[in-house]
Amino acid sequence: MIEIRTAVEADWPEMFAQDVRAFGSPFETEARPLIRRTLDLDRFVVARDSSDGALVGVAGSFALTLTVPGGAQLDAPGVTWVSVAPSHRRLGVLRSMLDELHARHRAEGAAVAVLTASEGTIYERFGYGVATLVDEVTIARRTARLRDPLPGPLRSRAVEADAARERVEELYRRWHAATPGSVSAEQFWELFHADPEWARWGGSARRYLLHPDGFVTYRVDEKDRAQLDDVKALTDDAAADLWQTVLGLDIFDVVTADLPSDHPLREMLVDPRSVKTTDRKDRLWLKFLDVPAALEARTYESDGDLVLAVDGVPYRLTVSGGTARCRATEEAPSVSMTGPTLAGLYLGATAPSTLDRAGRFAGESTALRIFSTSRQPELGTSF
Ligand SMILES: CC(C)(COP(=O)(O)OP(=O)(O)OC[C@H]1O[C@@H](n2cnc3c(N)ncnc32)[C@H](O)[C@@H]1OP(=O)(O)O)[C@@H](O)C(=O)NCCC(=O)NCCS
């Protein structure tokens, strides 16, 4: 028998130990208090084996907000810290914990839940689909030059960590409000600013480049490359200014970054071959808890009307003037798809035509054009 219940403080040392074991993290015990302060234990469950009381599972969520196309910010529980002891795998412990969490999230009134996944085949069965992607790029800094006219005089400045604190938080909040697919970072600022050695994964302390409308953070990694962790610009001018400053980081042959696939860096350069995409990774996974509320929360770039079945439940979705009305209906659907497929459309990560070519939905595809967006969504913060 497995008992699932809300975590309490006495569970915390075992929760931490299990997480370290499950993910092979090199965290030290000294990390425990700082990490503890990122979590609200009321939002966590533990699974214990009733035969001996052993802790065999942990799962929980951060109370995040998610920006959707049009700028609305939804409460979006960010499911996290998911692990099951190796002695108790494939017995349904994860399923029981997620069922409990999702029931709580529905009761809180959340329209969606989100997570980042350790493996690509775990979460679709629980209703999650890939909702944001990112390209890992390598930039040959010595050959990468911005096209004329070069931005300048440059307003970006290298700033020490202490001086960057408040401005980075303020810029991130502005960027989150303006960027579909991004989540809030409030729980994580203390850990972010502490920048402890164990959280650097072999890299240097975090360095900052700040502009009035954007920022870059980077570390020098173990291969002596400048690894950009944040590239967040609110305007095209800020982006050009920050990139010109990054490309001025003499010494480094190579700069790495994770960028949305529609990022204009290649088009900004004289030699587009200075940028190579080395990987494309799923970032945010999203599950619908309340389809009508979620679909009404975003805006649409064109109007339309369709009956869309999601996991077999038909909804009439009517978009007029860019805003949607969505209601359950008895009408026959014109398009049918799963929740995970809709997750790909919802924030704009995947074009309807791509899903059509992949055979991911049944029915008439033209009506799905309303989901098209002009920008790729971007997660911005790992959790
Ligand atoms: C992933 C993990 C949490 C699964 O826990 P579990 O209790 O064994 O999972 P369950 O028995 O509840 O499995 C539920 C379903 O998910 C499937 N599943 C579980 N782990 C899977 C995996 N790694 N890959 C693919 N499918 C998986 C099961 O086959 C089962 O499918 P079914 O219901 O369709 O038959 C566990 O293996 C683990 O702790 N892994 C290491 C840490 C980790 O990766 N955590 C996820 C962080 S995002």
UniProtKB/TrEMBL annotation:
Domain of life: Bacteria
Keyword hit for Oxidoreductase: no
PROSITE patterns assigned to the protein according to its UniProt record, in alphabetical order: GNAT
Pfam families xrefs: Acetyltransf_17, Acetyltransf_9, SCP2_2
Name by which UniProt lists this protein: N-acetyltransferase domain-containing protein
Residues the entry annotates as binding acetyl-CoA: V82, S83, V84, R90, L91, G92, V93, L94, R95, S118, E119
Catalytic-site annotation from UniProt: Y123, F383
Known partners and oligomeric status: Homohexamer; trimer of dimers.
Organism: Tsukamurella pseudospumae
N-acetyltransferase domain: residues covered: 2-151
Keywords on record: Acyltransferase, Host cytoplasmic vesicle, Transferase
Family, similarity comment: Belongs to the acetyltransferase Eis family.
